[in-house]
Amino acid sequence: MKQRWWRKKLTLMLIAGANRRIVRLKLPEISLFAVPTVLVTIAAGGTLAFVLLHDRYETTQAQMQKQFEGTEQQLQHTIESKDAELVHLQASLIDLTQQAEQFKAKVEEIKQLKQVLAVMTDGATASAANKPEQPQPVGGTELTPTAADVAQTIVTTKMSLTSMINDMNGLMASLAESEAKLAEAQHIRDITPTLWPTRSRTVTSGFGIRLDPFSERPAMHSGIDFAGNTNDPVYAAAEGTVAVAGYDGQKGNYVIINHGRGLATEYMHMTKLSVKSGQLVKKGQQVGFMGSTGRSTGTHLHYEVHKNGSPVDPRPYLVATRKENAEP
């Protein structure tokens, strides 16, 4: 019977030296394939294990690096937050210092006011001041203040100072509000046409229905006519902006000023103008010279007040005195 190949034996002879015994090892023929295969398997396994361990190392290192970067960002954010808190505390400290300075200044104002009041009342108290000061009757038991008494005094003093500061702030706010109201009232006064537009107080024709001097028929006279001399100055009745400065066949040389809040004034029949369209004018500023241009029977100023686009009687507005009129 033919022997199968994996059962065949190989003899391996190991000769140590000439005079020594020869060692014979019988190995199956399959070992010629098994040993290299085992060696290759071991090498491949080692290589695979190294690759896996290296990948695991790279993954672990990446995770640790990411975690480190996240921790570093958190620390950076915490540092920035602490820096912002520090800046806020510094700003609060500066603000507190400024408030302390303001309080000190207010106390100085109170001291000066006290001195003024003392001077004002000095005459009334001079006789009392010349008299020697008499000791006032006092009494009671003298006790050494305890730490609790001192602490309570400090708390009470702080409360009093806080109340005083609040009162002062309230007073300052009230004064500021009053100042704002005063400024607003002054602005309204400046833009309200209360000033007489001419030096002359002679009115030749009032507001309302009258006989037209040309047609001699009843007609609505939408303003007031002031008498005067040629080239007498004509003044802006209130502060505003020149809307129109030009010539019209009916109005002659005329000016319209917008004052805001729906008020406007108009000046007609002037010989020449002193302002231009778009120009800002002050109350009492000269806008032209009295004349007789346009539809006019002689030298005069036709003056109108418009409220929300409609002419109204100017007389209720004319409360200013001659001294308020500006000189040309």
Automatic annotation (TrEMBL):
Where, by residue number, does the polypeptide cross the bilayer? Answer: 30-53
What keyword terms does UniProt attach to this protein? Coiled coil, Hydrolase, Membrane, Transmembrane, Transmembrane helix
Enzyme class name: hydrolase
- Give the signal peptide, or none: none
Q: CDD domains annotated for this entry? A: M23_peptidase
Residues covered by the M23ase beta-sheet core domain: 220-314
Q: Where is this region: Disordered?
A: 305-328
GO MF annotations in UniProt: hydrolase activity
Q: Look up the EC number in the record and give it.
A: 3.4.24.-
Coiled-coil regions, chain positions: 86-113
Task: Please report the name of this protein according to its UniProt entry.
Answer: M23 family metallopeptidase
Q: Which organism is it from?
A: Paenibacillus chartarius
